[in-house]
Design brief:
The protein has about 200 residues and is mostly helical. The chain contains six helices and no strands. Helices cover about 85% and strands about 0% of the residues.
């Protein structure tokens, strides 16, 4: 029975790894869009939705059949949460794409690109932290999340000082990036939960 449980956990891990790779692709697509190269993030988001449903199905079966306890139970619970976070990141990426398509601004997006660079690193770090159960990476995620929070506040202040289309679109995009960074931080929190049962 233990071996069958481990096979199920490995299957979930493989799906989460694929979700992580697809989510990183979504973040890379944002960079292309900012440079005027359109990409279809919706297709990637739809794929993530399907993968998340597969994880939920496997998790449900493992819980009912094998009644896991301790770290196995925490891993299954956390994997469901992480799959949601990765899916939500793709939805915010879609919102950024839609915002740029609707407004079609001719802007440099310097601050957005700086924030995006940090957010991309956060996504990669979050996925690595969870899959490798590396608690040390969580501290790095918290530091980067604080940086993005500060950049969002700065973008609002900049909009107040110079209320034009570019500043408004930039503030909105950074707001979406701030939400993405929150979900990356939540994945870090899930890593801590799996390791020692503590929620942060």
């Amino acid at each position: 029975m233990r071996k069958l449980l481990e096979l199920g956990l490995k299957q979930m891990e493989k799906l989460l790894q694929e979700m992580g790779e697809t989510t990183i692709e979504c973040a890379n697509s944002i960079e292309k869009i900012l440079d005027g190269e359109w990409d279809n993030i919706e297709d990637k988001s739809s794929k993530l939705h399907i993968l998340r449903e597969e994880i939920i199905d496997i998790a449900t079966e493992l819980l009912v059949r094998y009644q896991p306890v301790a770290s196995d139970l925490r891993y299954i619970q956390a994997s469901i949460d992480v799959s949601y976070d990765l899916y939500r990141i793709s939805r915010y990426a879609m919102e950024i794409e839609r915002t740029i398509k609707i407004t079609n601004p001719n802007c440099e997006f310097r601050d957005v690109k700086n924030a995006l660079k940090t957010v991309n690193e956060m996504i990669k770090t979050a996925v690595e932290a969870f899959l490798s159960k590396d608690e040390l990476l969580v501290g790095k995620l918290i530091e980067m999340d604080t940086k993005i929070d500060r950049m969002y506040i700065d973008s609002i202040k900049a909009l107040k000082e110079q209320p034009d289309l570019c500043k408004a679109v930039e503030a909105l995009i950074i707001r979406h990036l701030e939400r993405i960074s929150d979900h990356a931080k939540y994945i870090g929190g899930a890593t801590i939960y799996v390791k020692n049962g503590k929620r942060i």
